[in-house]
Batch of 4 targets.
Target 1
Amino acid sequence: MRLRFAAAVLLSASLVPALARAQGADSVGTRAQGMAGAFVAVTDDASAVYWNPAALGKGAYFSLVMDGNRAETVPDSLPALSGGKRSGYLLALGTPALGLSYYRLENKIVNRPITVSRSAFQLDTLTTQHIGATFVQSLTDFLTVGSTVKIVRGVAGTGLIEGERDEILDHADVPGRSTGKFDLDAGVLLSGPVGRIGLVVRNISEPGFEVERGGRELVLDRQIRGGASVLLLESWKLAADFDFTKQAGPFGEVREIAIGSEGQVTRRLAARAGIRFNTAGDDHAPGLSVGGSFAALGSLLVDAQITGGSDKAFTGWGIAGRVVF
């Protein structure tokens, strides 16, 4: 029995391509997730170091963000085949000319290979820690550009594990190899009196992290995302984001469109909501998000969000604290 399982492990590893799915674009930012990820042209606090570095130049004079998000997708319609789990944590400081950041992304994907027994899953894990400095330059009164230079430490692992899908996602782990890489994000923002247009390119060098054995890499795919926002009322805005590139997800390719809105309800309370779709496949996997902010003490804001929707969409929650002035 053990020999058969070991042979299946080797056969499965030999049939897996050299590049494997890695981390999605929407892992960071409670405020962003409250708008379903329609945030490239909206961000105006320190989370811009991730969502659009150029936006720091048109944002707050000073901002500090501490943020955490968790999400998973475990479809009831595919109870024994695949699923995913991810989390993102951000600590960032921003000024109009400079930003400093640390964020940690963790991604787990389980799939049942066709060459292995019905009790075994392949588990891919990738945890990356990013330390970055963001630099912003205003080219005109309306146009800013920015870039985030990063050191990325990644731990990648893959292996076959026997058990139930949900238990593997929640508790299982595989040996990983730690690797350090340099990477770069870049953004541009065009601002006007009634709205903004932005573009961000993340993971420009597409850093790959080799697993402990098997010669495979888990790669941070290059992500190109555009966005636009418009002021509907003095305190309400509508925004939309769209991916120019496809990413590999738990159930196939992902290329999202997100639409969201954010506004001030009272002097101390803001609300936001959004919806996103996958345009890359037959199953659009819509996800719905709602969130809000409460001004607890002067410039201290507390954010929260929850995301639901299709059982093939990532659903979860997030909470953050921001100091903005």
Note: The two ends are 64 Å apart (CA to CA).
Target 2
Amino acid sequence: MTRRERIEAALARKPTDRTPFAVWRHFPEDDPNPRALARATLAFQARFGSDFLKVTFAGGYAVADWGCVEADRVEPDGHRPCARHAVAARGDWKKIRALDPREGEYGRALEAVGRVLDGLRDDVPVVATVFSPLSLARKLSGERLNEDLRERPGDVEAAIAAIAETEERFAALCLDRGAAGIFYSIQAGSRRHHTVEEYLRVGEPHDRRILESLRGRSALTILHAHGADLHFDRLSALPAGAVNWEDRATPPSLAEGLAMVPGAVIGGLDQWKTLRQGSPAAVRAEVEDAIAQTGGRGLILGPGCVLPLDVPDANIDLVAAAAAGAG
């Protein structure tokens, strides 16, 4: 099977010649430049041979054009936190208007996707990272989002709608350029950020609309549910071919999640403990447990989120070897 065929089979819960897997990470030294990011992404793919290739842009790419400024400090997972938010006062929400995603940082991200696709020498599906509008509203405003939603709901919701328009257009442009699909990251579908009522009012309608717009165009739509205490029953009902979350750190388990989604689950590997610090036996044990939980059908082995920068190459090699041995 090619990597593309293996992923297609996993999405359909059909047998595969071996268990598909994928790993992805940030490249903070390279991500400011599309050419350098593409080169680093392709080298990482050539080294480890994931069954899908995720283009992971700088963490702040989707908010920079509205005025957010990233810090110089790089976190252990490779992203740079926002040093200055675009929304620093309630009135700033009115400044958030829909952008042309062919320009600015969005345009540079689109260029990186194109360069990755142009440099590929393998039949591997490429997915581009897109953030949910509510997630970006939090990135734009930091800790003031919930208060502003209560005090100025009209202004905040108008801004979220403008963000959604921009994200939907960017996703379409990535597919136009040749990406196989979209890695749709929802960082606001958690009880730690919003009640289920808040998410259903200002988050889910935009998430559903954007994901619905990918139907028939995206061969691999991955929904990444970020963080803990997830509104998983709502997130799993959104239209996506595969769902990824930190199943080793927060409910549901991989087996429980597989019972809730129509397609595949991506996970089984703890990127912070096992992949970063675990022994070879611990890595193999997580791979074997993930396969046992799912019966090897509808499973793409992977971390619950981006790899920390200091994950040893040897542990990623172990995942690939263990996946191949379980085919």
Note: The domain at 3-325 is CATH 3.20.20.210 (TIM Barrel).
Target 3
Amino acid sequence: MDDGKVRSQSDQGPGDGSVLLSTGPKSMSFLYRYVMALFPIVLVIVCIFLLPILENMSHVASSSLTSAVAGAMGPYSTGLVNQYSSPVNDAASITVLMIAPVGIFIFFAAIGWVMRLTELWTSTALTLGLSGAAGIVMATWGGSSPVSGNYMLLLLQWIAYLVQPFCLVAAGIVIFRTEKFRRSIHYTITNEGLWIRGGFPGTQEHMIPHHQIGRIVFEQDYLGAMYNFGTLIPLSMTRWGEETSFRGIGATGQKDNLGVGIGYAKSREEGSRYPLDCLYGIPDPKKAQKIFTGFLARHETREEEQVSYLKKIYETNAAGTMADAPGTRPTVPTAAPGPGVKDDTGKKPVDAIAHGAKSSEHRESTIIRITGAEIPKTPAPPVTGTIREIPPTVKTEDVPDKGAPPADPIFDQIKKLSELRESGIITEQEFTAKKTELLKRI
């Protein structure tokens, strides 16, 4: 792939998923990175103009100091002043060279590192490192001992001279590395998710499933609109653009002094624009944005269907559980009074209860209820087709049917949580964790 050209969509991507889009960063999107790689050349030009000014200022300052000391100590101190004037001038020259170019290069290298401008701090640090290493060789090769008094001055003078050619060398190395890095980056969108692969000299590979992408942020500057390229930032959280402020009031002091301070800071959450964290500077970004939008809409529809399906399953299982739960009695067939049947003891006949059940095996049987006083003392075989029930059964009323159980509020809570997530009030991780917790209660 060269210059971010789109590959064939019929290829098979990582994970054997069908490739919907395969692309990479366009060369124009890395323009400012190439400019940052050339920044050491700008610093060298600044040092060339700044160095004479600083040297003149240091010379005037050292001369004024020497004259003032000589005038104060009188004519007899002229030899002593002349003896120490040379070290004073050397110290002033060392101070100037520590500011330009050493101090300036270190300052901008630190700024580039803090602001994550890789090309800026690497090219600046590389220029100073190469100049310092070559300066040590030249100063030592010239016969100066590292423990001598003028070794530091000679080393700094070599560094101030060598940064001029080495800034071109460092800029060329960083530009070459940046171009190799750009060409190594591949963005592949499949049915499974987004694959990001690249890096130089090392290689990184990331896979972001579509269901973990909560939203897509689209960015396009003036050059992007002119040459049709832009950046897509996939986010798994809904807190893009949220501002956080910190405020504090403090006081401190001792017996004779007192200090009071008020602090305030504000920060804004943003997605990473590093080329291995997003789709950086890809050509025709609207096409990729349309693909992601389709997956996001499909994901929302599947979540709603899943919640509805789980709710139906729960209601069905709850209804079946209530029907088989203890405390409920099945429907008892209606009993009809039957003719009196005399038992084998010759006692008072009792009413026979004939079953009204549908099963035919109990239609010809008769249940005889007798009290404890009527229990025969002499056992005798029971009447054929007669079942004795001892002691008498107390008639219990049927438990009324309570009807279907009310709808469980768990799924209503999940639906409300989904609405809060879509409104940006809660994050995707918070929604998933709470939904899992609620489903475990079922």
Note: The first helix runs from residue 31 to 37.
Target 4
Amino acid sequence: MPARVLVVDDVPANVKLLSAKLQAEYYEVLTALDGPRALEIVRTQAPDIVLLDVMMPVMDGFEVCRRIKADPVSAHVPVVMITALSDVKDRVKGLEAGADDFLTKPPNSVSLLARIRSLVRLKRAVDEWHTREAAAQAFGAIWGNGPGVEPVGAGRVLLAEDAHRGGNKTPQLMRAAGQQVAEARNSADVRELVAANEFDLILVDHMFGGEDGLRLCSWLRSFERTRHVPILLMIEDGDYDRLAKALDLGVNDYLIKPPDRDELIARSRTQLRRKVFEDGLRANYHRNLAAAITDSLTGLYNRRYLETHFEIVDNRLRDSGKPISLLIIDIDRFKAINDEHGHPAGDRVLKSIANHICDRLRNFDTAARIGGEEFVVLMPESRPEEAKSAGVRLSRSIGAATFPIDEERDLPVTVSIGVASATAGTLSLDALLAQADAALYEAKRAGRNRVHAAGDPTDDDEADRRAAG
């Protein structure tokens, strides 16, 4: 996986050695010999990951890490601190400064490279969501700056650990830290629990219920409900091959057994915070994507979505020569509703008509609002006579109903409908809409509350025939 790695160390020999290892794996390597230069490179050259020494003059690694994570532009660049310090307190200090991992010198090559791959993969996922948000923003769909990185409270944690192996300490530590913990005794328990519950973090013992914990991790990553849930693996010290495999499977982080209380809490909080942020990104994107393609009043699709959807349908059907039909539905005398009863009453009618239309569509038809009181229904694989019949049924059902204009009063409403059809691949959406709009005009001209299809005889045609006769 190509990536740009920034190596920061005040000892040139260390920089050279680590750079050589990374370049041998085809990584692009940037280097810095002090903290200020590292921060400048992060700002100007956007590395995918930072490998950061702790003990440096002028500005130590903890401060560099804090500044990287405090800047919204670089907050989600992974930072791995690599240092001779091996005390648990130092690891916890690094994690609390925002580091994604804390490795002691010299780092094992297998686990280091696996960790880089894992963290770069996670960053790329976040980058992709940011890219999608930027694309949505270009369509005017994003309001605000998206989710921030906020402190997290209690999380729902699933613990997959043998009680006799953990001495029952892990659940006690997690509960003491304010987390809600569900315990599983074996893989079957895990499958049952995740099928019925939403979890924010899953802790897995590398040997669990007499089974290989990595097999369980692999299943969790393939199961839809847990695909994006952070996994924290508990592993024996020095088991680098298993750790590398776990990280490549998608495990987010790891703890050496038996876990230290402060490190367990720090790593858990990091993963919980990341899940809150990534869930926020996904929700923000989907919410604003919906806003970009739907009408805010009625919830129907808008003109922009209809255009894209028509192209997809047209391309899918063009080789088969199947028809595409379209209805334009216009509320009769809608201006009078607004004038006599007010715009809130008109909005109620629009929403009710939209719901009425949706309730009577086939599941593969698409309804959109394209104007003030105009709606369109796109009907793939519908022949002209079928589309007109559908329009007649819809017109009659609306005419037989009443629609609320306030909490106490309902109003009878009628619609006029224009119908147009074409063989897929022969007409653009604009051309088909123009035909349907012309048919709608004829329906209005003929007295409203009726359906007219493109190609139907008009009142003028009938008058000409009578005159000729």
Note: The mean pLDDT is 88.
